[in-house]
Amino acid sequence: MTETHRSPLKTLSLRCVIARNEIAVPEKLKRGLLVECHLQEPVHEEHRLSIKDLLEKPQAGAEEDELMAEFRELFASLKANPPTMELRVKDGSYKVTNYYDEEIVLRASSHASEDANPHRAKQKIQTVKSESPFTKLYEFFYRCIKNKGNVKKRKVEKIIMDGVNLAFESGKMYLVL
Amino acid sequence: MPRLLEYVSVRVLVGIWRIRAHINYFFLSFRRSGAPGSGKSTLLRLIADNLHVTKDHVSGGEVSLSGVKPGGEVIWTNCVGYIDQIDRLHPFLTVFESLKFAWLCRSGGTHRKPFYGEGEDVDKVIEKMDADLHAVHKIMDAVGLTRVKDTFVGDQMAVRGVSGGEKKRVTVAEMLVTGTPVLCCDEISTGLDAATTYDITRLLGAASRITKGMFIISLLQPPPETVANFDELILLSDGKIIYSGPVDKVLDHFNSLGYEIPDRVDVADWLQALPTKDGYEYLNEAKDKKFDKEALLEKHLTPEEFRQKFNESALGQKILERIAAPVPKGGDAIKAMAANRYANSSKDSLKLVVRRELLLWWRDKYQIKAKVGQAMILGVVIGTLFWQVEDNPGGIVGVQFQSMFTAVIGAMLLIIKQFPERSIFYKQQDANFFPTWTYVAGRSIATIPNACIDAIMFGTIVYFFTGLAVNDGASVVNYIMFVLMLFTLSLSSGLFFSVFSASVQNITIAQASMAVTAVVLVLFSGFTVQPDVIPV
């Protein structure tokens, strides 16, 4: 059943709670709780507009308002003939290369099973300590000793977008989700 | 499904009465929405040729508008507009002034477009539209800004202005008046209520049909009635296209893959949750309460599999066929529309920018009062410090040094104000509002009033307090020379320090750089270190 139908049982329960805790309730509110009214006629399931109906309903353009009607009229008076265009995206891609400390890469890959996007969340957060020159110097020598002279950070490539093929037409509005 | 809280006692607060109701309930842990990080902004930026590209940030593929590609003979940003998620607006301009400035910059002051017809009647209509600023007023009407057209845009510090939602509408309207045939809007609903988002998308939809424009809009969790305003839907997950096609076919597509939308779930929420690991709950088999989770997880498609399924579908095949087809006509019209970067001549752009910068200076009354106060107080302090030193040559040099130092400090303080305006400049520069030199020149000209305050108020007090006026042979010419010297000094140090606001990364570095520069100026001014000991 619908939530808009105020249940007498719920009202009664609330009144019991109020009475049990000896709470002073203003007269106006009490009267409101006593009136068991229907705020709105319940909507039956068969009359409820489904999401599919909503998406398949005629587009909003069919019921253009005054402003749009005026706009259309103006375009006619300007004898406007806007060109028809087509926008194409072919094999669109975007790749980002990040450089991490070995330790962070290892930590990120150990979380990979529970997070599909580990490098995004597990990036090193900058702190006063981590950004201090002493820490950086310490990390440099630490890497140097640990990696036997190789001080380079681990390169991690992240594909942000890949293989995007799209075609857009004139006179249409596109929603990107 | 893990639960965040289960069977908890909740205290209910009703007004000032506390009801200790032992309500037992449980809350499901929040589900992960698939939207953030899916690649929406990247796609829009790719289309708008606005991606951050370096050796570590590499973009690939090809974008073309009727065969015309970015970087060629057209100015791509005049073909494809881009609205990002941040509102970058001048707080001291009213809503109307902001839109009017944008329109004047991008249209050259006329509504005429290459695709309008010829004839006297058309000319008359355009003339009337130009006189009425038709585009500005109609767009303000459309996005519901007419009520606040004379209100400052405002910000959190300097001046109170329109609300956050209205600010977002100004951002959208500012790009709409520029009239690019393709407009990419990145999460324009942030800060807007659902009703306004619905209204704006409905109007954009109607406008796209009439003007044959293309609006590509990304939204976060739009309600179903807003989704229904769109013609087509593009669904991204992990940077992969998992659906692109008519809005009314999206449910059928995913139904064919074995997924079904539950009752009372928003379609956008459902679509964004589908490719996540929680998406298995929407498989048809999950309706059975005793489902085997492992089996469903096995059956649930990954983003890559969703992409493959889409590419194999009729809709996916249609897109690939269209991309492979010969380029449609329309390239010449685009070239005609976007051949020139700026709509105005350099002189007109300069006029527009100077007028705006002077208006911004005049509107910032607090800054003017502070400047006047600073000039007067420092004038009195320095004037009394060097009180009537007309007979002391060292004292006169001291007066000159202190005057120079005051002008330098004043200029340093004004630079801080220029930092927040940088992002606005970048936005307007990306949208080809005006050439960069006109902005630099306009801003420099707008510093003249401040230099005048420094020279006249500070200079007059110092000149008469320190006794320069009663020197032997002193005349009004000496006074004018002293004021002119201060004016030049104030103006030139202001312009010199603006180099830092334009070139350094942030305000902290700028302050440090300016302090170092000031020390160098002090050292070589000939007062702190005598000229004869300065190494040459």
Summarize the structure.
Chain A is α+β, with helices and mostly antiparallel strands and 177 residues long. Chain A is built from eight helices and three strands. Chain A is flat and about 75 Å long.
CATH class of the largest domain in chain B: Alpha Beta
Name the biggest interface. A-B, 67 and 103 residues
Return the string of H and E elements of chain A.
Answer: HHHHEHHHHEE
Instruction: Return the average pLDDT of chain A rounded to an integer.
Output: 66
Rg of chain B, nearest Å: 31 Å
Biggest β-sheet of chain B: count, sense, barrel?
3 strands, parallel
Task: Itemize the secondary structure elements and their pairings.
The complex is a heterodimer of chains A (177) and B (536).
Chain A: H1 8-20, H2 27-34, H3 51-56, H4 66-77, E1 86-100, H5 102-110, H6 118-121, H7 128-131, H8 133-146, E2 154-169, E3 172-176
Antiparallel strand pairs in A: 1-2
Chain B: E1 3-8, E2 12-14, E3 17-19, E4 25-28, H1 40-47, E5 57-65, H2 76-79, E6 80-83, H3 95-107, H4 120-132, H5 134-142, H6 164-176, E7 182-186, H7 194-211, E8 214-218, H8 224-227, E9 232-237, E10 240-246, H9 250-256, H10 267-273, H11 293-299, H12 303-312, H13 314-324, H14 331-337, H15 346-363, H16 365-385, H17 393-430, H18 436-445, H19 448-465, H20 476-503, H21 507-523
Parallel strand pairs in B: 6-7, 7-8
Antiparallel strand pairs in B: 1-4, 2-3, 9-10
Helix pairs in contact in B: 3-5, 3-6, 15-18, 16-17, 16-19, 17-19, 17-20, 17-21, 19-20
Question: What can you tell me about this protein's structure?
Answer:
The complex is a heterodimer of chains A (177) and B (536). Chain A is α+β, with helices and mostly antiparallel strands and 177 residues long. Chain A has a domain at 89-166. Chain A is built from eight helices and three strands. The model of chain A is unreliable at 1-9, 35-50, 57-63 and 110-122 (pLDDT under 50). Chain B folds into three domains: 1-30, no CATH class; 40-93 and 157-337, 3-Layer(aba) Sandwich (Rossmann fold), CATH 3.40.50; 346-533, no CATH class. Helix content of chain B is 52%, strand content 10%. In chain B, the strands form four sheets. Chain B has a three-stranded parallel β-sheet, with helices on both faces. A two-stranded antiparallel sheet of chain B has the order 1-4. A two-stranded antiparallel ribbon of chain B has the order 2-3. In chain B, a hairpin with a 2-residue loop joins β2 (12-14) and β3 (17-19). Mean pLDDT of chain B is 83; it is low at 1-17 and 25-34. At the A-B interface, α3, α4, β1, β2 and β3 of A face β3, α1, β5, α4 and α5 of B.
